[in-house]
Write a structure and sequence with these properties.
With 150 residues, this protein is α+β, with helices and mostly antiparallel strands. The protein has two domains: 41 residues, Winged helix-like DNA-binding domain superfamily/Winged helix DNA-binding domain (Arc Repressor Mutant, subunit A); 80 residues, Lrp/AsnC effector binding domain/regulation of amino acid metabolism (RAM) domain (Alpha-Beta Plaits, 2-Layer Sandwich). 36% of the residues lie in helices and 20% in strands. The protein has a four-stranded antiparallel β-sheet with strand order 2-3-1-4.
């Protein structure tokens, strides 16, 4: 699937997606054209699915995080409610989970008032939602989208 060089490239890109091919090539003692080809292959295989900037929510007015457990009337095997929830801009993650609840949702909003508004005006309008339980995050000690590459 991928070799050790690919893994090193992935680690470097994961830590900073703006790292140039030349910088990666220097750190791996390779030609930039070889690094470019390997990255293109990793993209073609779907191992690299995109690039993004990490934004600081404290500076953008979306520092309140909450997790919502959502129950819905969805029949087993359907995800109609999840599709509707996924369209809400403040929703960052939607996970179909086992147990009493159907979905675990991560949202980011400005404050508690914005969370209440989101619950009332967005989630409240999805008629298939039967109940929610909300956990408000007081402090984040670790948050990452990095994957351990072994």
């Amino acid at each position: 699937m991928i070799d050790e060089i690919d893994k090193k490239i992935l680690r470097l890109l994961q830590s900073n997606s703006k790292t140039s091919n030349a910088v990666i090539a220097r750190s791996l003692n390779m030609a930039p054209s070889s690094v470019f080809e390997r990255i293109k292959q990793l993209e073609a295989k779907g191992i690299i699915s995109g690039y993004s900037a990490k934004l600081n929510c404290d500076h953008l007015g979306c520092s309140q995080i909450a997790f919502l457990f959502v129950r819905s009337e969805d029949r087993i095997g359907t995800i109609t409610t999840a599709e509707k929830i996924s369209k809400i801009p403040e929703v960052q993650e939607v996970h179909h989970v086992a147990g009493e609840d159907c979905y675990l949702i991560k949202v980011r909003v400005a404050n508690n008032r914005a969370l209440a508004d989101l619950m009332k005006n967005q989630f409240g309008k999805i008629s298939s939602i039967t109940s929610t339980k909300t956990t408000i995050v007081l402090e984040t000690l670790k948050e990452t989208s990095d994957i351990k590459i072994i």
